[in-house]
Design brief:
By secondary structure, the chain is mainly beta. It is 0% helix and 31% strand.
């Protein structure tokens, strides 16, 4: 029996950034980003679906340009 107040863990998803806005500081095109699929918006352009995310909704960035001894959002 699970109480009604119990919360279920959320599963995060990885995606590749195909575009970024002019004020984004931490992500560049081609980075893999970790995000919560429940905190997203979707849009269809030219027959392809895209996920729109705010930079603050990205949990982590996996990028080869980031040094391994750094801290912050990066993996």
């Amino acid at each position: 029996m699970i109480p009604a107040t119990a919360s279920v863990g959320r599963r995060l998803s990885w995606a590749t950034a195909v575009g970024v806005g002019p004020n984004v500081r931490s992500i560049v095109v081609g980075d893999r980003v970790l995000f919560d699929p429940d905190d997203r918006s979707e849009v269809e352009l030219h027959g392809r679906e895209y996920v729109l995310l705010r930079e603050r909704d990205v949990h982590a960035v996996a990028a080869s340009r980031v040094e391994s001894d750094g801290t912050g959002l990066y993996l």
